[in-house]
Amino acid sequence: ADMAMTKFVFRSLAREHPSPPDFLRAANEVVVDEVQEGKFVTMVYVTLNPETGELACASAGHPNPRLVRSDGTVVELAASGLALGVARDQDYAEARERLHPGNVVVLFTDGVIEARRDGELYGHGRLDRILSEHRELSAAELAKAVVDDARAFSGGDLADDSAVVVVKRN
C-alpha cells in the first residue's frame, strides 16, 4: 500500500517539480507524512534532455549513478541525500553532466554493489571496471553484463534486489 501511494504521488509531483532536487524535497515531505514511522524510500531521480544530452540527478539514500564516457572513464554522479521519510526539511544535492554520443548513464540498486562472496562486497570498484570494460555493449547487454558479473562474483543468486538501468546516447 505504501509503494502504491508513493508511486501515485511521485507521478503527480514530477509534473510540479521538474528539477531532481526540488522533486526529492517535495517527495520527502509527502513520505514523512504518509508512510509508517520507521519506513523510508530510497530513490534516484534523473532527468535527461535527449536533444542536448544535459543530465541532472539527485539521490535520496540510493547509490549514485555512474556516467561512463566513451574513453572508458567512469564518473560517479555524486548527489547524495537522506532517504525519503527519515526527517523533514531535507535538501538534496544535484549532479549535472552532459551525456555525449557514445556515453552511458547507469542506475543501479544496492543489491548489485552489496553482492557478497565470503564476506567481501562486490563494491563500486568492480562495478566501475565492468562498466568501463563493456561500455561498447548495447544498453540492454551492459545491464545484463553487470547483473551477470555480480551473480558470478557471489556464486549464484543475489541476496538482495538487484536492478540495473542503462541509458546510452547514440
Properties at a glance:
single chain, 170 residues, alpha+beta, 4-stranded antiparallel beta sheet, 3-stranded antiparallel beta sheet, 5 helices, 9 strands, 22% strand, globular
Any overview of this molecule?
The chain is 36% helix and 22% strand. The strands form 3 sheets. The protein has a 4-stranded antiparallel sheet. A 3-stranded antiparallel sheet has the order 1-2-5, with helices on one face. The longest helix has 16 residues. By secondary structure, the chain is an alpha+beta fold. Strand 3 and strand 4 form a beta hairpin. The model has no long low-confidence stretch (mean pLDDT 93).
Helix tally? 5
- Largest β sheet strand count, sense and barrel closure: 4 strands, antiparallel
Number of strands: 9
Portion in beta strands: 15-25%
Query: Uncertain regions: pLDDT < 50 for 5+ in a row?
Result: none
End-to-end gap: 39 Å
Helix content: 25-40%
Average pLDDT rating: 93
Rg, alpha carbons = 16 Å
* Order of secondary-structure elements: HHEEEEEEHEEHHE
Secondary structure layout:
Elements: H1 2-16, H2 20-34, E1 43-48, E2 54-60, E3 66-68, E4 74-76, E5 95-98, E6 104-108, H3 110-113, E7 116-117, E8 120-121, H4 123-133, H5 139-154, E9 164-168
Antiparallel strand pairs: 1-2, 2-5, 3-4, 3-6, 6-9, 7-8
Helix pairs in contact: 1-2
